[in-house]
Specification:
The chain starts with a helix and ends with a strand. By secondary structure, it is mainly α. The C terminus is likely disordered. It contains 14 helices and four strands.
Length: 315
């Protein structure tokens, strides 16, 4: 296996892992606490990584880490959950699948990566494939839900692009940078969760096991692989791995929850997977991430897990 293929394979483990989130949420966690779940995913994982790496931001990186954490976690989760509760799961998933298109536009604006016909075709094909997998006939639209879904996708897409633009400081590994973002994102979610949902629920052993998986396997490890992959892949290549999340969710729903998986869904999986694969083949060599020392000035430079039958979408 080539080095590029190994990077793609490891990065792909992140959206594949996120595809298990709905199953874990419905089978192991207390119901109707999406923000608390987002908090329990982000903050414990971030604090653990801070303890392991023993590195804190310095200088301008306090602000950069806060921005990246808000975009990738803190703003993304609440907006995603708002869309999930106001839209059927399939509609929310399709709205979220436009993320690669946002990345193409933002990468052109902030990274100087001009969009190509291939990148546009693969992103549209991926979104179409996802729509076949998850969209149901007669699905209703809600303006607030659609706007929230689009903003959540834009937030995560901007996080991908700015993670690529800023790189990481000299002497700081991807694990430490992941810890900074998860901690910052968790601190953004913390007051929102308590204001909207109130005090934490009483937790059983099963609940704690589910939260442990989400925090450490599904978040700490997965986001480390995701941010590491963003450094090594082009922004469009990385974000085109996103459709692996709804594909995984659909397979788990069929295998573990008995959800229907008909010929249309299978065709959608093939199209989405094909677009994902095409996005990794012979991509334009990405610019090396900019590594900054603490004394230098700045250089210019989902999971979404879907229930095929439910309106809950969580990543």
């Amino acid at each position: 296996m080539s080095r590029k293929a190994a990077v793609v394979a490891l990065t792909a483990l992140a959206p594949i892992s996120w595809g298990s989130t709905y199953f874990v949420t419905t089978e192991f966690l207390p119901p109707d606490r999406p923000l608390f779940t987002g908090l329990m995913r982000a903050l414990p994982a971030g604090l653990l990584l801070l303890a392991l790496t023993r590195k804190l931001p310095r200088g301008a990186w306090w602000g950069k880490a806060a921005v990246l954490g808000a975009l990738n976690i803190g703003a993304f989760f609440p907006l995603l959950f708002l869309a999930a509760y106001r839209l059927p799961g399939g509609v929310a998933a399709v709205v979220g699948s436009v993320g690669p298109l946002f990345v193409v536009g933002l990468a052109a604006l902030f990274l100087g990566d001009k969009p190509t016909a291939k990148s546009l075709i693969t992103t549209v094909a991926a979104a179409f494939g996802v729509s076949l997998v998850v969209l149901k006939a007669g699905a209703a639209l809600d303006a607030v839900g659609v706007i929230a879904g689009l903003l959540s996708s834009l937030s995560m897409s901007a996080g991908v692009v700015f993670t690529k633009r800023w790189g990481r400081p000299e002497g700081v590994g991807a694990l430490a940078l992941t810890g900074w973002q998860l901690t910052a994102g968790g601190l953004v979610i913390l007051p929102i969760a308590f204001l909207v949902e109130g005090a934490p629920p009483a937790l059983t052993g099963t609940n704690l096991a589910g939260y442990a998986y989400l925090a450490f396997g599904n978040t700490a490890i997965s986001y480390f692989l995701w941010f590491r992959g963003i450094e090594r892949l082009s922004a469009s290549s990385a974000t085109l791995l996103g459709p692996l999340s709804p594909i995984t969710a659909a397979i788990i729903g069929w295998a573990a929850l008995g959800q229907a998986l008909g010929p249309v869904q299978v065709v959608g999986m093939v199209i989405a997977f094909g677009a994902t694969l095409a996005g990794q083949l012979n991509p334009r060599t990405p610019k090396a991430p900019e590594i900054e020392s603490f004394s230098s000035t700045e250089k210019n430079g989902q999971e979404v897990s879907m229930d095929l039958e439910s309106s809950a979408v969580r990543r």
